[in-house]
Amino acid sequence: MINIDVNTIYLSMLLGNFMTVLLVLSYALHYKDRMINLYIIGKSIECLGFLVAFIRGGVHPFVPIGIGNTLLIAGASCENLAMLSIAGYSSQRLRNIFIIGGIFAVILFNTAFFLGANTSQRIALMSFITIAIVSLSTVKFLADPKASALRKMVGFLYLFVIVGLSLRLYDALRSADFHYFLTSTMFQAIAFLSLSLNQILGTVGFVLIAKEIADRELVSAATTDNLTKILNRRSFRQHAEAALAHCSRSHEPLSFAIMDLDHFKEINDTYGHLAGDEALVSFTKKVSSMIRPYDIFSRFGGEEFALLLPGLPSDAAFRVLERIRKAVESSRFISEKQEKPITVSIGLVSCSAMDISDLDTLYSKADALLYKAKSEGRNRVAVSEASL
Predict the structure, then answer these.
(1) Are 341 and 282 in contact (CB under 8 A)?
(2) Cα angle at 34 between 49 and 45, to 5 degrees?
(3) Which of 85, 242, 282, 344 falls between 20 and 30 A from 191, CA-CA?
(4) DSSP 224
(5) Which of 215, 195, 191, 192 minimizes the C-alpha distance to 203?
(6) Cβ–Cβ under 8 Å, residues 224 and 232
(7) Among 1.10.8, 1.10.1420, 1.20.1510, 1.20.1070, what is the CATH number of 6-223?
(8) Do the Cβ atoms of 122 and 65 come closer than 8 Å?
(9) Is there a contact between 100 and 68 (Cβ–Cβ < 8 Å)?
(10) Which of 150, 115, 352, 122 has the alpha carbon at shortest distance from 252?
(11) pLDDT of 165 strictly over 70
């Protein structure tokens, strides 16, 4: 039987956590997020836990065992809550689970300590508690069908930790050795290996997931309108040009419309700009609920919107836009403050597959028809079969 140097183990875990804290701190200097701070707090608490556990001589056993493991439970709970929250799984229920579960785990472990549980029993209990904490992250990452490959990899890493700790739990329960922690076994080695890998790869995974979220937000900011959350003008052009090319290749017609809310300046002047923003968001939601998933809807700026309807000829597109016009007229977009109906004017241009031209030409024709709808009294759809 080969003895394990306990101090070396605790020192390596302490240094490992300390280095991961430095790693995440360097990342946090550029990306501010509460969950990144929570992860740093969790790792720091774990560092303190290993430091306390490292102090074994000349102090009451409760200090390294009771306080040390209490800090490790608290740190692991913060770490896993931060991991799930940064990945978008945050909820009050999840926070309550970690808070209440963490408190219960601390009480359970320290009760077992004061009741005289031996080393093997305490190791088995601590392994079980750690498995319970890590299991939430494992299930979330592996069970989510929309999880990225990165999140799946983190989930499998956590699963490896669970396997290692489960083997250690089993080995500790069947051992009558009061000094089990000092004993070198295959299961002990697997458990320590999994924990060491989790220290390094788990933190790298956290940083990469945080970066994944930040990149996604940057892409969203670059492609969507900040207020209405639909495509902005630049992104609309990219999607629309691809749709035009597809319709041309597949010999399908298409329709393009410019929509403009009538007298929108009066809405801002009468009800305020916040109410105007509310009207724009409500209008966007109304239109989005009445079009197909593959129709391309965008806010061009101010109160002007664009809608591309692939595959729809003029008569079908007119029916869609007329339904939208009537729905807008009958809706109350500014809650109870709205006294007069908000209306929309629409310029619609359609073309057959053989006549499809560039987007700028479509826009010019639709804009002229929008002007016609405005000049004829607003709240109408002006349409013309385009020959481009």
Answers:
(1) no
(2) 5
(3) 85
(4) B
(5) 195
(6) yes
(7) 1.20.1070
(8) yes
(9) no
(10) 352
(11) yes
State if pTM tops 0.85.
no
- What is the distance of C-alpha 365 from the center of its chain? 40
The size of the chain, in residues, is 388
184 and 2 in contact (C-beta within 8 Å)?
A: yes
Adjacent-strand bridge partners of 359: none
- Please state, in angstroms and rounded to a whole number, the distance separating the CA atoms of residues 140 and 154: 11
Question: Which residue has tokens 């409760």?
Answer: 62
Please, which pLDDT band fits residue 67 given cuts at 50, 70 and 90? very high
The angle subtended at Cα 311 by Cα 308 and Cα 313, nearest 5°, is 90
- pLDDT recorded at residue 388: 40
How is residue 242 written in tokens? 């691809």
CA-CA distance, 144 to 152, in Å (whole number)? Answer: 9
Region of 209 on the Ramachandran plot (φ > 0 left; ψ -120 to 50 alpha; else beta): alpha
Question: Cα 25 vs. chain centroid, distance in angstroms?
Answer: 21
Where in the chain is CATH 3.30.70.270? 233-385
Q: Show contacts of 230-237: CB within 8 Å, 24+ apart.
A: 230/284, 230/288, 230/297, 230/298, 230/299, 231/296, 231/297, 231/298, 231/299, 232/298, 232/299, 233/298, 233/299, 233/300, 233/301, 233/306, 235/298, 236/296, 236/298, 236/300, 236/306, 236/308, 237/359
The ranges of the chain annotated as CATH 1.20.1070 are 6-223
Residue among 94, 95, 83 nearest 41 (CA):
83
- The one-character DSSP state at 57 is S
When the candidates are 3.30.379.10, 3.30.70.270, 3.40.50.1980, 3.10.580.10, the CATH number that belongs to 233-385 is 3.30.70.270
CB 247 within 8 A of CB 254: yes
Q: What is the pLDDT of residues 178-205, one digit of tens each?
A: 454 555 566 666 667 777 777 777 888 8
Q: At what angle do helices 92-114 and 68-86 cross, to 10 degrees?
A: 160
User: 248: how many CB neighbours lie within 10 A of its CB?
Assistant: 15
Structure tokens at 53: 């556990």
Alpha helices by DSSP H, listed for 146-202, are 149-173, 186-197
